[in-house]
Amino acid sequence: MRAFACGHCGALVFFENTVCLRCDTPLRFDPERLALVTMDQGEPWIDCANRGLAGCNWLAEREGALCRSCELTRTRPSNSDAAGLEAFAVAERAKRRVLVQLLEFGLPGIRQGALAFDLLSSAQQSVTTGHADGVVTIDLAESDDVRREARRRQLGEPYRTMLGHLRHELGHYMQPLVVVGDEAWALCRGLFGDDRSDYEAALERHYTEGPPADWQERHVSAYAAMHPWEDWAETFAHYLHITDTLETAREFGVLMQRPRALGTDDSQPPVPPADPGEGAFAQVLAGWLPLSYALNAINRSMGRDDLYPFTLAPAVVDKLSFVHRRVLDAGHAP
Ligand SMILES: [Zn+2]
Ligand SMILES: [Zn+2]
Ligand SMILES: [Zn+2]
Predict the structure, then answer these.
(1) In terms of Cα–Cα distance, which of 74, 199, 195 is closest to 138?
(2) Which of 25, 106, 194, 224 could lock 331 by a disulfide, CB 3.0 to 4.6 Å apart?
(3) In this model, does residue 273 exceed pLDDT 50?
(4) What's the CA-to-centroid distance between 130 and ligand 3, angstroms?
(5) C-alpha–C-alpha distance, residues 181 and 329, integer Å
(6) 85 neighbors 77 (Cβ within 8 angstroms)
(7) What is the pLDDT averaged over residues 269-295?
């Protein structure tokens, strides 16, 4: 995510801010300009109708209308469901972050009529997080930290967040929009496997037998080993994790130098694993590997779990590289 400055006093402000903490100037996010704006920067603004309900800080086009992000939500908890609405606000905040990233890549399909979200709570009914035909369903109970952590442990996952769920499900949605044409699909199936294989059987096998013992050599997560669709969605989510975190670090002026422990011998690469490989993604990875190492070490200094608890095997790097090319190709296409 880009770093933003208050248009009035120049202080650093976050994407989620509704007011500058230094000068009290109100701030809103303008989804047309993809920028945080202050009231004194020109036109009068219209708050998203979910300003009070979901704490949304985006601008809407018309009085009483929802913003470009909130209008994509087709179902939400009822006005009488206080706990559900609290969870809904948490999910909407994560959703705005993902949508901005996709919009900044210039990816297609982020519009009403094509994409919709059902934000439901499994505390009220049975809800399965997933994607089908442009509808992303999210279990709002996952916005509860205790509940989500329990589920993470139960499933043996190293990482589980609302942002991660949204990135994964939007990966499913984006796949046919960025993998276009026979040639691209042949490459995709060569890397991820044939997505036409039986999904129900794969699901059953995953939950009875678990992932294959060597999954880490071929997949970014154990869940990705379940079926080619899940492999794509997991890899796409990681692509968004990596590129967003890298951008944030750069925006805040975080520069990676050689770790001191490696001395000044420039002939040795700073980080041993994963061959960056050829092509444009090699550059992304060359920035990401030392940064994620440092961030993991920093988290350990605070007694926290690793920020990025994953290793990227060469086969996974090939898949990420493919996602990168597809996103670049589909982004800002006419
Ligand atoms: Zn300010
Ligand atoms: Zn909104
Ligand atoms: Zn999935």
Answers:
(1) 74
(2) 106
(3) no
(4) 6
(5) 12
(6) yes
(7) 74
